[in-house]
């Protein structure tokens, strides 16, 4: 990029020295030299570079903010056997070792990543995760080094130190991203590769044309010489012609600006990655930043991505109506105690429900625990008086927890009423777990992995951008269909093994246009091969584990809507890069002919120092253009809660195409083909059922109750209809 400036200053200086030496030898009048050109050029170039570096420094402001978060010291403590502090010592953060106990008082910065062992507090994690609201922390909670402790005094144990901390990893990711090249930079490199030789040729051609014109049409040219006025008679034709030729050729060299082309992409990438990091979106370089805007198909993993990934109890029912002793709370206490010997996700859901209900970790005593994989468990439970009052504190319960087959095995009858109650929840993709107590079928827990609150809005926003969404999961067809219906995804691939997910992405890429890219969104746990295979791999909710190798974009917060933000940031960045390119190319296209003197007939011409000033300003303008990306703001999710979204919600569960594995199509949840006789039959069946139920409700409860009911029908198969009635 400095070649043109060096050529301009060198030619100006060498020409000036030679013409001066010749005039001295020939004892001629003082010639017109360009000794003023090199210092003027260097002055404006230095000023331009300084302003440019000031502006470029602002492009990495986000990185500087992150680096400023690095704590300098921490308070190391020692505890006695009762957990009281017996010694405190202030040490440098670099000296903290894994396992050290550290004290953090309100207002101080957390010195390193760790886990709270004593105390409760609230932390401000906004500069790390982009989460504006303070986060409550209790014993056992993870804290992130560099975040601010707001209210409570805590003692924490260091778990990650030095380069292993989340803050260090984020800084490294942002540094790497800001120095990486986007594919679009190749265009600038190709142009820059021929730009300098092209300008040298133009400059020489300018010099040659003026020399030719000077000797063929001297009278029309001489009035534009710097020797103008009455003194012109003292100078020869050759001096005047060569002064003009060299002046305009040097001006061409000075005005040309390859710097603007070179800065168009990297400055925008630096600003965009910094803006992303401030919003909790870590983009690992220019390539994913560019490719994200070309995504046309986005594939979602289910567990931990669309859903919360933590099964919880959403409903409880008791089937024994004539037993005053057995209540919902008592059944929960008995079941949670029986499940205390299990690590199954469903068992943990029941235990967590018990913990939240009774606000204690305590449970009764579980004896003779036996679990049979795929069916359920058997146990004897006693001592639940710690959870709920018991008249007989030594009372023992025989407990069975499991599915229908487990109850039948133990001679407990699953009536049609209970079976229907279970089926209703199973159609929604929930898991119904039966509880038998003392040889009676006592009740049922309904457990579900709930969808994230923003999942439907995220899918709507992505579909509004023209993206095709796919749900890819290892869950069964029934659950996958139910989840897809809740979030509005129309293409579902269920019962897909983790090893098959990567193959699915490969097959999808083969079928698509090379210019259309695929994104895979997952939690980075069991879908890493698929994340790596996709054009853009997005890891959601990684928290402090920012070094998810397979993902090219890491979302620190467990916020699915950040996927939309990442794609919009990519579109905005590439749009800004193209504006920079257009400005840089447009500047050179206009400035070079003017510098060459095409506007001389209009008495408009540039001097070399003017050209160098214009060149410096063009570089600064490109950097300032990139800095406008700093004003990018995450879209407000509530802006999507409009009439279009409400209309979309009415059809979100229709026309869902479900595949078993990555090959076979199972069917759709609602067929709309007018040529299908089955579809007509299903539609008529649904209407008949609605009419029958409406008539029954009217006859049994009256028109007043009927008018308050909301009825929704969904065709589940060719001859099965489901009616959901809500009051």
TrEMBL record:
Entry-linked InterPro entries = ATPase_P-typ_cyto_dom_N, ATPase_P-typ_P_site, ATPase_P-typ_TM_dom_sf, ATPase_P-typ_transduc_dom_A_sf, ATPase_P-type_domA, HAD-like_sf, HAD_sf, P-typ_ATPase_IB
Residues in P-type ATPase A domain copies: 87-175
Sample GO molecular function, one term: ATP hydrolysis activity
Q: Output the CDD domains linked to this UniProt entry.
A: P-type_ATPase_Cu-like (cd02094)
- Chief place of localization: membrane
Its GO biological process annotations read: copper ion export; copper ion import; intracellular copper ion homeostasis
- Give the protein's recorded name: P-type ATPase A domain-containing protein
Identify the PROSITE patterns for this entry: ATPASE_E1_E2
Q: Which NCBIfam families match?
A: ATPase-IB_hvy, ATPase_P-type
Organism name: Rotaria socialis
Where it sits in the cell: the answer is: Endomembrane system; Membrane
Q: Per the UniProt record, which residue ranges are transmembrane?
A: 6-26, 194-218, 577-602, 608-629
Query: Looking at the UniProt record for this protein, which Gene Ontology cellular component terms does it annotate, in alphabetical order?
Result: plasma membrane; trans-Golgi network
Q: Tell me which UniProt keywords the record has, alphabetically.
A: ATP-binding, Membrane, Metal-binding, Nucleotide-binding, Translocase, Transmembrane, Transmembrane helix
Q: What topology in the membrane does the UniProt record assign? A: Multi-pass membrane protein
Query: Which PANTHER family did the record assign?
Result: ATP7, ISOFORM B, P-TYPE CU(+) TRANSPORTER
Q: Which protein family is named in the record?
A: Belongs to the cation transport ATPase (P-type) (TC 3.A.3) family. Type IB subfamily.
